[in-house]
Amino acid sequence: MIVTPTEAGWQVINQQAHGLMAAHLALRWAEKKRPIRWIETLVALSEHDDGQDPYEGRNHLTEAGAPFAFKASGYSLNQTKNMIRIGLEKSRWNALMLSMHITFLYEKKRGEDPALDAFLDQQKVNQIKWRKQYEATITEARYAYDFLQWCDALSLVLCRNQLQIEERRLEVSKGPDGTPYYIFQRENGSLGLDPWPFDNKRFEVHVETLQLHQLAFKDDQELYNALNDAEVKELSWKFRR
User: Are the beta carbons of 44 and 97 closer than 8 angstroms?
Assistant: First the structure.
C-alpha cells in the first residue's frame, strides 16, 4: 500500500492501483519508441506489484496498528514468488519483465537472507532461458524492462505526492533510451515532462484512493473491512506539453 496521512486518518492507494496507472502512462509513450512485445510489456507493468500477501494476522499493519506503507515493509519473498507465478501463467515475457524487476529491486539485499539469495540466483537463470525462448536480444529485453521501470517510477512520483513547488524539476528516472526525464508542476496545476516522451500533447491520468477515518487497527481483518467500506476518491493529473 501507498499510505499518506490525512487530517481524518489515512489515504491508501493499493499497489495494484498504482500499477494500473503506470500502464495508463505507458499507453501515452511515443509509438515509434515502444519496446517489443508491447501488449505483454503493458500487462507486466500493470501487474508488477501483484501477488501481495493476504490480509491475515498483521501482515499489513505496523506495530502501532497503522496501515503498513510499502517502503517500510522491506520485501516479502512470498509476494515475489506469487508475482512470478502470476506472470508466468500469462506468458514467459511477462515473467521475464517481472523477474528483471525483482532483480532491480532486491539484488542490493543480497547477503541478508539465504532464501532471497537463492531466489535471485534462480531469476538469473530464468531470465536467460525466457529471453532465449523469444529469441530476444539482451538489448531488446533491457529496453523493455527499463521502459517498465520508468513508467513505474513516474506513477510512484504521483502516487507518493513527490511533485515539487514553484515549477521545480524532479528527476523521474532515466528512460529506456538512457535519457533523464524531469517532471514539473505549473502554477495552473498541469504537469510537464522534459523532454516530452509522449505522442499526445495533452492527456489525463487518474488513480483510485481509499480514505480511512481511523488511525489504528487491531488486525488485518479490521483493516481489510475498513478498506472495503472506505470512501473512494479519484486523484487525477493533467499533462501538457
Answer: yes
